[in-house]
């Protein structure tokens, strides 16, 4: 698709509602098409072919930093290990931050794409693993660069300071925390507003979704179940932690179904259960690993307290001594839910609607999973008004075919995950720039 075809074919790449876009918006979109053809498409291809794991995004961060310098930003590297901070100062006004995450996943790509990742690298433990951008962080970084070019070219239309962040290790939940620990706000200024976005395969490419709570809070726990070892043929002489642990697993499911309001989101998943080493030996210990999801402080407190109570009383019912009751431990720092600032979200929704028409919003999309995101570490302490929104990544024909019983659309983190980069990136850049211009209004 070449930019010389201008608006008629642009409407095939962005939602049809853009036909009624104001003249300044149409001109911006034409510039985005040209930028995509000349710069962003090959940049996306580079990022997709060359993913790197969390905390190991050395080449990725260097390329992102170089692109932002070329756009005219002052760039600092190695913030919070491999993080990137870029500033464009353009007179008096607010400081607005926009963030993109950089890390890939230890997944073997099976998308069948011509530019599918073939990268194999050693992880932090020294184990070799395939790596791919199966969560769309390549789209996020490319969008950040696209927004950088547009904002630099449109400096006459806004005033303030734009801060762009390339964040490491989102997939491990520690990158934002590490950048905050590196005193990012003290070094570069505390933003007045913050923005981020995520591409999602369940939405039509180029359209967006704006939810009050785009991501859930997450706690990672482990439960150490103590028992008394014995021969497998003499279970009466011991206390079997496998049986006790199994009872705990089943009892935990009643916390959400019977203690939490059915209209309140909450989740407890036991993802790992390890015990024993041989079929005829009753072990003296079992370990459960849990993820706990919530979207309010009250629900989080209820779930965590109930998990401790259920674990302890299940062991007591099995006759475990008081000094051998299960230990419930917090693993890693909890991630709070990502909650959009409602007045700010309403302001940006109005700007998107005015510039792009109501068709920019994905119809009838409801978030079903309780996935977590560490962007909130930037915005919660101290509080920064923020908006996090979703950009679609799949052609509408594929979504309709899947809804009619055809091949399912692979979700984020799947080896089959893929996006339509042109419509996704163009839509993401357009909505990002419109949001930024709204916040930088003179």
Lay out the secondary structure.
Blueprint: H1 6-13, H2 23-49, H3 58-70, E1 74-79, E2 83-90, E3 95-101, E4 120-122, E5 128-130, H4 137-153, E6 160-167, H5 175-181, H6 184-188, E7 193-204, E8 208-209, E9 217-226, E10 230-231, H7 241-259, E11 266-275, E12 281-282, E13 285-294, H8 297-317, E14 327-335, H9 342-356, H10 376-379, E15 386-394, H11 396-403, H12 421-439
Parallel strand pairs: 3-6, 3-7, 7-15
Antiparallel strand pairs: 1-2, 2-6, 4-5, 8-15, 9-13, 9-14, 10-12, 11-13
Helix pairs in contact: 2-4, 2-12, 4-12, 7-8, 9-12
Question: How would you portray this structure in words?
Answer:
The chain is 37% helix and 23% strand. It is an alpha+beta fold. Helix 2 (23-49) packs across helix 12. The protein is elongated, with a radius of gyration of 24 Å. The two termini are 35 Å apart.
Give the helix tally: 12
Q: Strand sequence of the main sheet, in spatial order? A: 1-2-6-3-7-15-8
Q: Strand share of the residues?
A: 15-25%
What is the arithmetic mean of pLDDT?
93
Run of helices and strands: HHHEEEEEHEHHEEEEHEEEHEHHEHH
Outline type: elongated
In angstroms, what separates the terminal alpha carbons? 35 Å
Q: Please identify the structural class as seen in this structure.
A: alpha+beta
How would a textbook summarize the main sheet?
Answer: 7 strands, mixed
Return Rg in Å.
24 Å
By oligomeric state, this entry counts as: single chain
Helix content: 25-40%
Low-confidence stretches: 1-20
Compute the number of strand runs: 15
């Amino acid at each position: 698709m070449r930019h010389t075809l201008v608006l008629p074919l642009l409407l095939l790449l962005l939602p049809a509602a853009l036909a009624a876009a104001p003249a300044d918006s149409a001109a911006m979109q034409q510039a985005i098409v040209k930028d995509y053809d000349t710069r962003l498409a090959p940049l996306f291809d580079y990022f997709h072919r060359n993913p790197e794991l969390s905390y190991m995004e050395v080449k990725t961060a260097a390329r992102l930093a170089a692109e932002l310098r070329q756009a005219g930003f002052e760039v600092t590297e190695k913030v919070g290990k491999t993080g990137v901070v870029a500033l464009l100062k353009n007179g008096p006004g607010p400081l607005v931050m926009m963030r993109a995450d950089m890390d890939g996943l230890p997944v073997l790509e099976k998308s069948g794409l011509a530019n599918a990742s073939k990268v194999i690298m050693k992880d932090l433990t020294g184990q070799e693993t395939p790596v791919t951008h199966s969560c769309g962080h390549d789209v996020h970084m490319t969008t950040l660069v696209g927004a950088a070019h547009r904002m630099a070219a449109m400096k006459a239309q806004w005033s303030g300071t734009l801060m762009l962040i390339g964040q490491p290790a989102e997939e491990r939940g520690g990158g934002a925390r590490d950048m905050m620990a590196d005193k990012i706000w003290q070094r570069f200024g505390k933003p007045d507003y913050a923005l981020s976005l995520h591409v999602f395969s369940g939405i039509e490419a180029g359209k967006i979704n704006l939810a009050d709570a785009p991501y859930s809070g997450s706690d990672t726990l482990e439960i150490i179940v103590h028992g008394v070892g014995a021969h497998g043929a003499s279970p009466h002489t011991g206390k079997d932690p496998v049986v006790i642990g199994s009872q705990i697993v089943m009892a935990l499911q009643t916390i959400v179904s019977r203690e939490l309001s059915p209209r309140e989101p909450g989740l407890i998943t036991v993802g790992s259960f390890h015990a024993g080493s041989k079929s005829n030996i009753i072990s003296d210990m079992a370990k459960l690993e849990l993820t706990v999801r919530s979207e309010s402080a009250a629900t989080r407190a209820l779930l965590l307290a109930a998990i401790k109570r259920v674990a302890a009383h299940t062991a007591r019912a099995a006759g475990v001594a008081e000094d051998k009751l299960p230990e419930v431990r917090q693993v890693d720092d909890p991630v709070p839910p990502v909650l959009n600032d409602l007045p700010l979200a309403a302001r940006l929704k109005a700007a998107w609607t005015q510039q792009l028409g109501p068709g920019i919003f994905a119809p009838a999309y409801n978030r079903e999973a309780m996935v977590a995101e560490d962007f909130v570490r930037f915005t919660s302490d101290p509080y920064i008004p923020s908006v996090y929104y979703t950009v679609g990544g799949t052609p509408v024909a594929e979504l309709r075919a899947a809804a009619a019983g055809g091949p399912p659309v692979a979700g984020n983190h799947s080896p089959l995950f893929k996006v339509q980069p042109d419509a996704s990136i163009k839509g993401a850049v357009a909505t990002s720039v419109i949001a930024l211009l709204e916040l930088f209004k003179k």
